[in-house]
């Protein structure tokens, strides 16, 4: 029976060695070492080549489905599930969803190959310029990377918002919170929650956003970190804080799909889901080095509501009032001594809206005034119409009008 026999390079090499065994040029032991097969397998191949010729060197499963392969029905079912529910998932996340929601355990590379066979493209990481890797810090709580990720997290089901992301540099553990934007109030509130839950980090790494950095003075965030004795490190490029940037990219894949599965479309429900479910699951999946020592400092002894707040300073006027945002506040006598005129007081606006005024770290009593306070000891006098000052102004106006007419008539 005539036909074409196709052999691979490996099979041609084996056939040559088998031929040399038959010619007694090399021993079975030598051939076993060269082919990296057992002697028993060499004898089997010899027997097949003698019986079938060169065809005997070909593996019997060529062109036949592997004995360890998955059933075709399972493959079709998985492809159908992917197209129907997970069409924008990558192979890794898709394999996790199959195991969690469909009780199907499947290797991610097998899924990747199946999808490519059907010409279904999956996300491919773009090539990025090489940068020198910065080693992780050696302790949990030594450095916290903080960033906000603006994105359409609810996929047009709700308003666009910002995910505030705090990532520990040593372990990769995250703390997440949704906010309307990366504004001072929400950033302070997120850090307050973090400090209450884990403690005070030794240093924090942020970008040069206006919430964190200003050329002329400390921002409220910078002042809060200074009061907590936290080193504030300002990154000069997004790549400098690559760990939190990479986590943002991962969250924009996994968290969006989790919110979609749960049917969540507003910030309040999303924050509840983060606290109750997502953060713990995400940290279990991606956090590393759980045995590292925890060097967070305790927040005991700090009055956090006076730290995570808006703080400004105003000078006291002679009548013991201060001006704030176009309004006036009257300082009142109380248990704490009042400052002298021209001295400064500290005004703290808490995140819950309450306002507190301090002088020498003692709280002062006050009340808001509806109108501008009048000057005491002064009486206003209305100038009469026949006052010489008024007559002088009238004469000046008449002279000016006369000179204009003369100039106009030539």
Explain what the structure shows.
Helix content is 38%, strand content 16%. It folds into 4 domains: 9-57; 72-117; 144-251 and 259-286, Nucleotidyltransferase, domain 5 (2-Layer Sandwich), CATH 3.30.420.10; 309-369, no CATH class. With 410 residues, it is an alpha+beta fold. The mean pLDDT is 87. α8 (220-227) links the parallel β4 (203-206) and β5 (231-234). The radius of gyration is 39 Å and the shape is elongated. α2 (28-35) packs across α3 (39-52) and α5 packs across α6. The protein has helices at 9-22, 28-35, 39-52, 72-85, 91-101, 108-117, 184-198, 220-227, 242-262, 267-286, 388-409, and strands spanning 144-151, 161-168, 174-179, 203-206, 231-234, 309-315, 321-324, 327-332, 344-350, 355-359, 362-369.
Describe, in short, the structure shown.
Helix content is 38%, strand content 16%. It contains 11 helices and 11 strands. Helix 2 crosses helix 3.
């Amino acid at each position: 029976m005539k036909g074409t026999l196709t052999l691979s390079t490996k099979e041609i090499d084996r056939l040559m060695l088998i031929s040399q065994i038959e010619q007694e040029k090399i021993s079975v032991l030598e051939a076993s070492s060269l082919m990296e097969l057992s002697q028993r397998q060499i004898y089997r191949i010899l027997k097949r080549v003698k019986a079938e010729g060169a065809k005997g060197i070909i593996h019997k499963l060529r062109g036949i489905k592997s004995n360890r392969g998955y059933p075709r029905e399972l493959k079709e079912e998985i492809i159908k599930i992917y197209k129907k529910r997970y069409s924008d998932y990558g192979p890794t996340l898709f394999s996790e969803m199959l195991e969690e929601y469909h009780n199907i355990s499947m290797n991610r590379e097998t899924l990747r190959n199946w999808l490519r066979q059907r010409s279904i493209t999956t996300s491919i990481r773009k090539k990025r310029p090489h940068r020198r890797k910065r080693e992780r810090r050696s302790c949990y709580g030594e450095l916290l990377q903080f960033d906000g990720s603006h994105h359409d997290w609810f996929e047009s089901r709700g308003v666009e918002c910002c995910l505030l992301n705090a990532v520990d540099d040593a372990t990769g553990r995250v703390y997440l919170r949704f906010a309307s934007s990366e504004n001072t109030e929400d950033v302070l509130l997120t850090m307050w929650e973090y400090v209450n839950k884990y403690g005070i980090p030794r240093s924090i790494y942020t970008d040069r956003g206006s919430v964190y950095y200003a050329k002329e003075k400390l921002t409220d965030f910078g002042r809060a970190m200074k009061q907590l004795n936290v080193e504030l490190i300002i990154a000069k490029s997004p790549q400098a804080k690559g760990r939190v940037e990479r986590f943002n990219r991962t969250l924009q894949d996994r968290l969006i799909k989790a919110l979609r599965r749960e049917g969540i479309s507003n910030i309040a429900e999303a924050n509840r889901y983060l606290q109750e479910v997502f953060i713990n699951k995400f940290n279990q999946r991606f956090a590393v080095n759980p045995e590292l020592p925890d060097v967070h400092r305790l927040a005991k002894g700090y009055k956090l509501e006076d730290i995570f707040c808006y703080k400004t300073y105003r000078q006291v006027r002679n009548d013991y009032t201060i001006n704030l945002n176009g309004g006036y506040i009257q300082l009142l006598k109380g248990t704490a001594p009042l400052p002298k005129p021209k001295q400064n007081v500290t005004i703290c606006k808490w995140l819950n809206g309450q306002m507190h005024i301090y002088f020498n770290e003692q709280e002062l009593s006050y009340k808001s005034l509806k109108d501008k306070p009048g000057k005491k000891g002064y009486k206003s006098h209305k100038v009469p119409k026949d006052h010489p000052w008024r007559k002088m102004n009238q004469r000046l106006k008449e002279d000016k009008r006369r000179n204009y007419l003369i100039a106009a008539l030539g």
